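Notes from the 1:1 (GR / supervisor)

We went over the backlog. Supervisor wanted to see one worked example end to end before approving the batch request, so GR pasted a single chain during the call. The sequence is below; no edits were made to it. Supervisor asked that the structure be written out right there so they could see what the output format looks like.
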Amino acid sequence: MKYTERIITLMMIIALILGTLFTGRGLYLLGIAEEKPNDLALRWREVKYVSSGTNPYDISDYLYRKENTLPLPARPARIDPQLGGTPVASGYPPWAFFWSFPFIPPVDWGYARAWFFGLNVISLAFLGIYAWRGTVSYSPMQRLFPVACVFSMNAIGTTLGNGQWGIILCALLAITSLTLRRGATTFPALIYATSLLKPTFGFTHAAVFLRGNSWRALLLAGLFTASSWLAVSWHVGIDPLGMLRQMLEQTARWNDVSYSIPDTLAAIGIPRNVAMLGCLVTGVVAAACILGVRPRGHLYELAVCATLARVFAYHQLYDNVLMVFLVIAIARLTLQRARTDDFAMLSALLVSVWIPGRFTSLFAIQSFQIVVWLYALGWLMKAVSEKDRNIHEMSSLPLSNSSTPNSYL
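Structure output shown during the call:
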C-alpha cells in the first residue's frame, strides 16, 4: 500500500467512526428521542400560528415586554394555550414563514416531525452522492473518502439534533448551482428563493447569479421572495414593512452564542443590525470578486460562497454545516494532487469541523476554526489559480489542446 493510501485509509477510518457517532446521534435526536428538537418545535409552532392568521412576531414581542416589565404592545398577542408562545420568534424574515410550509407542514406534531426527518435523510443522501459523484476516476475507497469526511462533521449531528435547516439548505444551494449551470432560469430561482428562508446561509450565493444571463434568475428569485413576504403579511393582517421592523427589533435583542465577523464588530460597540447588514453586503461583494467572470466548477463556487457566508453572518455552531462544500473541495484536491501539504491542510480542516460543540464556546477554539476555514479557502483559491496558469501555459504550446476551463472541482 502506498504512503498516501495509508494516510487516506487512516483518515477515513477516523471519519467513519466520528460519522457514525455524530450523524447517528443527530438522526436519533431528530426522529426518535422523546424530547422534541428545540428549533424544529419552534418553527412548527410558528407555522401553526401563521396558518391560523396569527403573527408570531406579535407573540414574541408581547412575551419579551412582559418578561422585562415593559409597556405591553397595543396590538394584542393571540396566544394559543395548546401551542404556547414563541419566545424566540426566530429572527427569521417574514417570507421564511411562507417557505417553511413545504418542509414543516401545519399538521400534528408527530407527522410534521416525521416529514422533516425524512427530508433531512433525503438531503443527507443528496450531499453524500454529491461528494461521491465527482471522484469517478478513483478507487472505491478513494471515492468514499470525501463522503466519509462529510458525515464526520460534528455540525451534521448538531443541526439534526436541534431540528435546524442546515442540511436541507445546503442541498438546496447545491441544486441551485447545478441547475443554473444547465441554463435553467425559473427552477434555480425558485430553489434559491426557498433557501433564503434563512438568508444567512444563501446570501453570498447571489454572486453566482451575477455572471452572464443568470442575473435574470436572481431577479426572479427576488420576485418570488417579495411575493411570499407580501402574502404572509396579508394573511396575518399587518403591513410588510411593519413585519420587517418587528424582525429587526427582535434580532437586535439576540444574546445567543455566535461567533463570526459581525459578532466581533458588535462586541466593539457597533450596533448589531448595522454590523450584520454591513457584513452581508461585504460577503456578497467578496464572493463576487473571488468568483469573477471566468467559469468555475460548481463545487468551487459553493465552497467560496458557503465559507464566506459562515464568517460574514450571524451563526451558531450547528451552522458550521456550511463548511461541507469546503471539506469536499479540499478532500478532492488532496486526492487529485496527493501532496503532503494538502494532507496537512485537510487534516487541520477536518479537526476544525470535528471539534465537539461543547468546546466551541472557548475563544481559542472559535479563533482556530475561523482561521483554518479562511486559510483553507485561500489554499483552494491558490490551487485553482495554479491550475488556471498551467492550462494557459499549455494552451500556448504548439499542438496543445489544453484549452478547457479549470478542471479542479
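Supervisor's comment: The two ends are 26 Å apart (CA to CA).
Batch request approved.
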